[in-house]
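From the shared-data thread, chain only:
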Amino acid sequence: MKFSEIEYERPNVQELQEKFGHLINLFNKAESFDEQDALIRNINDLRMEFQTLGTIASIKYSIDTNDKQFEEEQDFYDSNSPVFDGLVHQYYTAIVGSKFRPQLEKKWGKQLFDVAEVTLKTFSQEILEDLKKENELRTDYSKLLASAKIFFDGEEKNLQGLIPYMESTDREIRKAANEAKWKFFSDNEEEFDRLFDDLVKLRDRIAKKLGYKNFVQMGYDRMGRTDYNSEMVSKFRSQVEKFIVPIAVKLKQKQQSRLGLESFKYYDQPLDYKSGNAKPHGSPDWIVSCAKNMYSELSPETNEFFNFMLDNEMMDLVNKKGKDTGGYCTFIEKYKAPFIFSNFNGTMGDIEVLTHEAGHAFQAYSSRNFEIPEYFFPTSEACEIHSMSMEFLTWPWMNCFFKDQTEKFKYSHLKGSVIFIPYGVSVDEFQHWVYENPNATPLERKQAWLAIEKKYLPYIDYDNNEFLEKGGRWQQQRHIYMSPFYYIDYCLAQICAFQFWKKALENREQALVDYLRLCRAGGSKSFLGLVETANLISPFEDGCLESFMGVIDQWLESFDDASVN
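Structure, as tokens:
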């Protein structure tokens, strides 16, 4: 069914609770494995109905945050999704405690029960009102970002609309666009501080009500992490500092030299070449037509997938007024349909976000026929392997989008992926500090950010921008507000995606076989289980970074700066 044809109706929560309660009661009284097995399907049908309607409402609201109907629906789900979580909690309690658990586990897989057990730790009826408040604060943050109305170059822009100017070859324009962006954050600093302070204290209070020392482990449990912990992540960050930060610093020095700059300021960071960054050579419709050709040639599976997305209007790609920022992929469960949301703005980021979100969507499409919702997507760090690897697996078709600028794109893409990891671990270390020190003041948080940033991003020069020099850069990062402890997932996945990049150089056919196997597994295994399924080295394993960083460094070093400037 086309997205425009899908009808939306607000679910009746009381009716849902009654039906759900009845099924759980039958499940607990069931005298056979077959009875419980059938009831799991009935319960999941109810779950998917509610989740489908919530997803449709969320998509429509993010497409137009000024739409009053779906603003009201967003408020409805902010209030009622914790109630729904409570129903899922009852279901998880029932299956974990089932006397037929061994047979159920054999039928549905161990991962369902591992997810259930870790999720049970993060919910109780006692925190229901707190969860509603957390949702409200998240929505307030999204509204604040989407409210940006910045007058620049003769017209009103939102934050996404400033990005092309921030990559301008004219240094004064780059500087002015960056200053305009950060003035919005500075003007709203008090509100950004208040929202985050409320979120941190609220999450700390929730964690302590549930018996946690602080929110750190609860954050990990919320993310469904069953096979690694914060100590392993801390060691991973140390490996990044040792093996990747020196390469990142070298790449930034090379960038400064390539641009011919005596000083290298924060507003110079987005520009890779004097002649300008690589840009796609056509309109959004043209980009989609190139992508259609690309996916038809990549594999029969990706061809079927992308035609499904086009035929069913499962993409909204272009930036416009009132649209939420960023990009995402979600899954409309009842229709077994992924949906891609982005904000095209004429930069190379349009192609990166399209291939990235298409990686998520292709995985969800590949595992759409699992019968339980837990397996449509894996946990988020595994999800990001599909997306980041798709960015690299589509390299052979980049000439369609970039023509004579293809080599510029490839260098910027690989270099940007390396540069990102130290930033990503900065966000992660900052979040650990924040939730280990929940009573810190907004100023103390910003000072902590600056200290961490200095360790992983020593090349940053904020050129006397008061807001940034005070330590406010992190306030633009949605994940910090919306999904605490998510961000390290990108780093772990990028390590896996680099391995796919290397595999594709050595044996492209085998790389695709491993990638398809990974996508079809969906969320049926844990992160490290999926890493093994894809024949990858765990990011936590000694020697993992060394196994490919040398090859990446060599590839980037061989790039001819003179040929693109």
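The radius of gyration is 23 Å.
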